[in-house]
């Protein structure tokens, strides 16, 4: 039942040197997912925590376990508060850890 996962909130654009925010016109989710997946596999492989056979096995599945989701931008206070509370929570529940 081990289900390691990562939630990240990132901006859909970048701040320019003049302080203005430029929203990305198009975000290619499949390319972003593949890039993230490749970086994770490469880092694990470099540390000899996974081999090429395991990577091939993972990638042969319908769902590799890697995905990127892009939601609709929001600016309302309720959504902002919800995301702030979500990010504030600890990533690990100490009650669920055991040695």
Secondary-structure blueprint:
Layout lengths: L12 E3 L5 E3 L5 H18 L5 H8 L17 H12 L11
Antiparallel strand pairs: 1-2
Report what the structure shows.
This protein is mainly alpha-helical and 99 residues long. 38% of the residues lie in helices and 6% in strands. The chain has a two-stranded antiparallel sheet with strand order 1-2. A hairpin with a 5-residue loop joins strand 1 and strand 2. The longest helix has 18 residues, at 29-46. It is extended and about 45 Å long. The two termini are 16 Å apart. The model has no long low-confidence stretch (mean pLDDT 85).
Q: What's a concise summary of this model?
A:
The protein is mainly alpha-helical and 99 residues long. The protein is 38% helix and 6% strand. It has three helices and two strands, in the order ββααα.
Which descriptors apply to this entry?
single chain, 99 residues, mainly alpha, 38% helix
| Percent in helix | 25-40%
Q: Please provide the ordered H/E string of secondary-structure elements.
A: EEHHH
Q: State the helix count.
A: 3
Unreliable runs = none
Our measurement of the CA-to-CA distance between the termini, rounded to an integer number of angstroms, reads 16 Å
**Biggest beta sheet summary:** 2 strands, antiparallel
**Overall form:** extended
Percent strand: 5-15%
- The strand order across the widest sheet is 1-2
Radius of gyration of CA atoms, rounded to a whole number: 18 Å
Give the overall pLDDT as a whole number: 85
Structural class: mainly alpha
> What's the total count of β strands?
2
